[in-house]
Design goal:
Distance between the termini: 54 Å
Order of helices and strands: HHEHHEHEHEHEHEHEEHHHEHEEEH
Strand content: 5-15%
Radius of gyration: 21 Å
CATH superfamily of the largest domain: Type I PLP-dependent aspartate aminotransferase-like (Major domain)
Helix content: 40-55%
Largest sheet: 7 strands, mixed
Bound molecules: 4'-deoxy-4'-aminopyridoxal-5'-phosphate
CATH architecture of the largest domain: 3-Layer(aba) Sandwich
CATH class of the largest domain: Alpha Beta
Strand order of the largest sheet: 2-8-7-6-5-3-4
CATH topology of the largest domain: Aspartate Aminotransferase, domain 2
Shape: globular
């Protein structure tokens, strides 16, 4: 009998966390590593949010179990945010507060999938999706869009991958790892197609407030209101409010699905820390100036890193319009000799870059096919400039 179950034994380690951990380890050992690997803002959480958490920690009412689906005040604030940013009117009972967007992603798949149900997964995709789908018994069906199509899948591609077993479409805009944002028209076309075929949509909106160049990431339920009865929205405070460590996300969806998801959560983890919930309440209902300041800083860094990477011969960089990642196609660097090494995959290229220049980026293999690197630009301007300078030296 095997010691670890097949189901859990087949889960791969998160490749993004692995690269980030390796970079942090080298840094701790005194190496001047510049890491573009982390998927988190470098800013501290805004002061008024921290203060709300301090006050919450002192209040004994927060020292006890609370409803598994979340504090009523927070569920109300999330319903208001959903109306504000996704143009979807929901009752607070349609909100489930989770330990980060990650738990919301897992619970959304677990709530909808039976064994063998297929999920259309646009790629390059965030590493967690296929694992969460498989854990829930589903089958991820990748639909890949490369740099030549700005990493945006088309209705024709989705339709070609649809089978009688297709139950769910995963939609994410802005995307991790590519930063790609679907236009409202593209979103409406995909929404109408999903509706026509009776599919469910899990829409990950965690980066919806981090958009640039005046674009708006329209929610798929705003573009196609008829989908509201078969859509689960996933979101959280991690990226917008620099709160990755607080572990606070949520899911919003039709009443029956949210009741089922809350039942699952009541046995899995119960309520999210009340301190984090009170902090999230302050984040969603308080002043938003810090959010705008961070967004402007990300925008400035985005331009700097795109300009720097574009200047390297062999790298193609579609301009990302959201999140804080840039996803260059680096196939032009493969099969050539750099500092005595000839990488043939982006995995080997990322290793070479880390070894020779002490710059960390996540290889495309973490998100689908080889040939790409993901750079997060959620790090200081000076570090970005230094990291780019090192790459220019290696590939110059
Ligand atoms: N969705 C996407 C696309 C993400 O990139 C992340 C974080 N890497 C999450 C969800 C989950 O974020 P968290 O669990 O920190 O709220």
């Amino acid at each position: 009998m095997q010691r670890v179950s097949h189901r859990i034994g087949s889960i791969a380690e998160s490749a993004t966390l692995k690269v980030d951990a390796k970079a942090k380890q080298l840094k701790a050992a005194g190496r001047p590593v510049i890491s573009f690997a982390a998927g988190e803002p470098d800013f501290p959480t805004p002061d008024h949010v921290v203060e709300a958490a301090v006050a919450a920690a002192r209040d004994p009412k927060n020292h006890r179990y609370t409803p598994a689906a979340g504090l009523p005040e927070l569920r109300e604030a999330i319903a208001a945010k959903t109306l504000r940013d996704s143009a979807l009117e929901v009752d607070p009972s349609q909100v489930v507060v989770t330990n980060g967007g990650k738990q919301a992603v897992y619970q959304a798949f677990a709530t909808l999938l039976d064994p063998g149900d297929e999920v259309l997964l646009p790629g390059p995709y965030w590493t967690t999706y296929p694992e969460a789908i498989a854990l829930a018994g589903g089958v991820p069906v990748e639909v890949f869009a490369g740099a030549d199509q700005n990493y945006l899948v088309t209705v024709d591609q989705l339709e070609a991958a649809r089978t009688p077993r297709t139950k769910v479409l995963l939609f994410v805009s802005p995307s991790n790892p590519t930063g790609a944002v679907y236009s409202p028209e593209q979103t409406a076309a995909i929404g109408a197609w999903a509706d026509e075929h009776g599919l469910w949509v899990i829409s990950d909106e965690i980066y919806q407030n981090l958009v640039y160049d005046g674009v708006r990431a329209a929610s798929i339920v705003e573009a196609t209101p008829a989908l509201a009865d078969r859509t689960i929205l996933v979101n959280g405070v991690a990226k917008t409010y620099a709160m990755t460590g607080w572990r606070l996300g949520w899911m919003v969806g039709p009443k029956d699905a949210m009741t089922a998801a809350a039942n699952l959560q009541s046995h899995l983890s119960s309520n999210v820390s009340n301190i984090s919930q009170r902090a999230a309440l302050a984040a969603l209902t308080g002043p938003q100036d810090a959010v705008e300041e961070m967004r402007l800083a990300f925008d400035r860094r985005r331009r700097a890193i795109v300009a720097g990477l574009s200047a390297i011969d062999g790298i193609t960089v579609p301009l990302p319009q959201g999140a804080f990642y840039v996803y260059p196609d680096v196939s032009g660097l493969l099969g050539r000799e750099w500092a005595g090494v000839t990488p043939t995959t982006s995995l080997e290229l990322a290793d070479l870059i880390l070894e020779k220049t002490e710059v960390a980026a996540v290889p495309g293999e973490a998100f689908g096919p080889s040939g790409y690197l993901r750079f997060s630009y959620a790090l200081g301007d000076a570090d970005i400039a230094e990291g780019i300078a090192r790459l220019h030296k290696l590939f110059g």
